[in-house]
Write a structure and sequence with these properties.
The structure holds 2 protein chains of 2 kinds. Chain A is an alpha/beta fold. In chain A, 40% of the residues lie in helices and 10% in strands. Chain A has a 6-stranded parallel sheet with strand order 2-1-3-4-8-7, with helices on both faces. In chain A, strands 5-6 form a two-stranded antiparallel ribbon. In chain A, helix 1 runs antiparallel to helix 9 and helix 5 packs parallel to helix 6. The chains are: A alpha/beta, B alpha+beta. At the A-B interface, helix 7, strand 7 and helix 8 of A face helix 1 of B. Bound molecules: thiamine diphosphate (TPP).
Chain lengths: 325, 341
């Protein structure tokens, strides 16, 4: 298993958080009228992953060149942690020609063949795709793995079950990751899911399933490492359900009235300040470093946004290029 | 007989989901399995005359499952079920809150579903309420793996007074461990792990264990206590425990089942009897303290862990003995017709 590096993990979580925070700001900055999601510099819906950074950082720390990830509609944290170029993905989010998909995909469709990263707005859709990738790795006798990420709501889709079945049947090197942030839009897990933990569902397909509580990057790292090791060693798929936190709305503009009292304690449960504190207590991080790490992340995000806004928009005559359906 | 008996039920919805399914052969104990165990317990309780049960509450997990089933046909065969109201945090705090409320309601016994960690949390709050513990965890030295239906029956025999508490239970040992601001009690083992953060919780890597304190060490158990059992077994009723230093220079090497399907070689450097009432300081001055198999907190700087074994742990119902006494004394014959509300 890879060695865990606390400071690097902290930096990566902060990098993601600063990114999401800036996108949040920029998204609303010129949305006029506020209800028109097509308006402004960042068009379309926006699902941000603040609070879920430990999942992406803990899992991606084990991945190497050639490993694949399929992410869902809330993809930025996994994209960044997996090494997708921040500038190219930001340009895509802004709908620019220099974006990963030449500006035609937007924030839910970040495709990066170089890093084997993809995502989709159709929930659970990445699960079968990861099986295909894993099947290819297995056929080619590489030790690469595929990671499929979805929310706990998505785990009630047929695609989730079909993918688990196939991966188990063919013993594919897949790590199924469920980010359980308690909510699927406004639906709590207990109203959508017939079992308390999706780890239980793994048992039905004869594969190991674990649940990691507390949104703790170190615990996630340990579990993901064990699952990745199994997959690389040819022992087949595993499922990890990570209990995480949706710090903000389902999408930007979500008033979250349905969350009730739970919303009052989200800030206390924010994993990043909590982790910073534990590293300070351990003597591995100083208050000064907290500031400089955030500033370094801000500078990188600034540059990415600058790159995006200064890139040209796609030309109207290219509208039908690279479009398959 | 005392038909106003009230039995508490604690079912940890989070047991048996940790990393030991990946690094060892820990099996899934699914929520639906836990619900099934609860059904069997409730049937056993009802069959021997318990008419009221007070259960903990969860987010629609095992207790939630029982709650909705109790409104259907199964409910007619069960004792009347009430649920403790407490805020749900999806953490051990829920168990603590539930057991506190059960103690306030003066339950006659508590059935606990979980592993060693769950029982530890219950024991901290239950006072002298007898416990009947059923294993739904991964490594279980404390709870038994007896058929839940029979556990329900034995618990009912004690709760209704048909078998006396004195005959049915034994008082367990416990250990208090303290360092810095932390002070907690364990029922089976306290281990010092050479690490600086609790990580994923469960202890499964033998290479990191440096020191061990055990209340008892039975040869048929798996987990940390098996390390002691393989050098010097200690029974639950023996008035002492064990203190073991692990590493070099070794006096002996044992191969122990540390988790399901996981055998590990452990080098024993020193073994001492741990006497009740004597505060023993850990030799290790740094590391993480694991209590009942769960990495919990770091040893504070300048304050090695202090461990004290005591004989004032919870009262545990001995299911086999209780059933035996009941049978021999005739109380299992001609039980009254069940007529729950
Ligand atoms: C197949 C499909 N059905 C419905 C939707 C609409 N939709 C978008 S996100 C979402 C909820 C997803 O919840 P969850 O999987 O828990 O992920 P989270 O948003 O919490 O990250 C739904 C139903 C969709 N995108 N795709």
């Amino acid at each position: 298993m890879n060695q865990f590096n606390r400071l690097d993990s902290y930096k990566e979580m902060v990098r993601i958080r600063q990114y999401e925070s800036r996108i949040l700001q920029e998204y609303h900055a010129d949305k006029q009228p506020a209800w028109d999601i097509g308006a402004g510099l960042i068009p379309g819906e926006m699902h941000l992953a603040a609070g879920q950074e430990p999942a992406a950082v803990g899992v991606c720390a084990h991945l190497k060149k050639g490993d694949a990830i399929t992410a869902p509609h809330r993809p930025h944290h996994f994209a960044l942690a997996h090494g997708v170029d921040m500038k190219a993905m930001t340009a895509e989010i802004y709908g620019r020609d220099s974006g990963l998909c030449r500006g035609k995909g937007g924030h839910m469709h970040l495709f990066d063949p170089e890093n084997h990263f993809s995502c989709s707005g159709i929930i659970a859709q990445g699960y079968p795709v990861a099986c295909g990738q894993a099947f290819a790795f297995k056929r080619r006798s590489t030790d690469n793995v595929a990671v499929a990420v979805a929310g706990e709501g998505a785990a009630n889709q047929g695609a989730f079950h079909e993918a688990l079945n196939l991966a188990a049947l063919w013993s594919l090197p897949v790590i199924f990751v469920i980010e359980d942030n308690d909510w699927a839009i406004s639906v709590p897990k207990s109203h959508s899911t017939a079992t308390a933990s999706n780890a239980d569902r793994a048992a039905g397909y004869g594969i190991p399933g674990v649940r990691v509580e507390n949104n703790d990057v170190e615990a996630i790292f340990e579990a993901a490492g064990a699952a990745v090791d199994r997959a690389r060693a040819g022992e087949g798929p595993s499922l990890i359900e990570i209990h995480t936190l949706r710090l903000w709305g389902h999408f930007e503009g979500d008033a979250q009235a349905y969350r009730g009292a739970e919303l009052e304690t989200v800030d206390e449960r924010d994993p990043i300040p909590r982790y910073a504190k534990s590293l300070v207590d351990l003597g591995e991080l100083t208050e000064d470093q907290i500031v400089t790490i955030a500033a370094a992340a801000d500078a990188e995000v600034d540059a990415a946004i600058q790159f995006a806004v200064s890139s040209p928009e796609p030309k109207p005559q290219d509208a039908l290029l690279h479009v398959f359906a | 007989m005392a038909s106003n008996a009230l039995v508490g039920i604690v079912a940890n919805p989070a047991s048996a989901l940790d990393i030991r399914r990946l690094v060892a052969d820990g099996s899934a104990v699914t929520t639906n399995h836990k619900i099934n165990v609860l059904r069997r317990v409730l049937a056993g309780l009802a069959g021997v005359g318990v008419e009221r049960v007070l259960s903990m509450t969860d987010l629609g997990d095992s207790s939630g499952g029982i709650e909705s089933l109790s409104r259907g046909p199964a409910g007619a065969r069960w004792p009347k079920l009430d649920f403790v109201e407490h805020p749900i945090t999806q953490s051990a705090v829920d168990t603590t809150a539930a057991v506190k409320a059960m103690a306030e309601s003066e339950v006659d016994a508590i059935v606990v579903l979980g592993g060693d960690g769950t029982n530890k949390v219950v024991a901290a709050e239950c006072g002298d309420i007898p416990l009947a513990s059923i294993s739904t965890g991964t490594n279980n030295a404390f709870p038994s793996s007896i058929e839940p239906t029979v556990v329900g029956m034995a618990t009912a025999l004690v709760a209704t007074g048909r078998v006396s508490r004195e005959d049915a239970t034994h008082r367990c040992k416990a250990m208090t461990v303290s360092t810095g601001d932390h002070c907690t009690r364990g029922l089976v083992d306290v281990a010092i792990i050479d690490d600086d953060k609790p990580g994923s919780g469960a202890v499964w890597d033998a290479a990191n264990i440096v020191e061990l304190f055990l209340c008892f060490a039975e040869t048929q158990a798996i987990g940390l206590s098996s390390i002691g059992a393989h050098v010097q077994p200690v029974g639950r009723n023996d008035p002492f425990g064990l203190h073991i230093r692990i590493g070099s220079p070794r006096v002996v090497r044992v191969r122990v089942p540390l988790a399901p399907g996981l055998l590990s070689d452990v080098d024993i450097a020193e073994v001492n009897q741990l006497d009740a009432g004597v505060a023993v300081k850990s030799i290790a001055t740094s590391g993480v303290v694991a209590v009942d198999g769960e990495r919990s907190f770091r040893i504070a700087a300048d304050d090695p862990a202090t461990v004290t074994l005591s004989r004032d742990g919870p009262f545990a119902i001995d299911v086999a003995k209780t059933m035996d006494i009941a049978s021999r004394s005739g109380v299992l014959k001609d039980l009254p017709t069940i007529n729950p509300t």
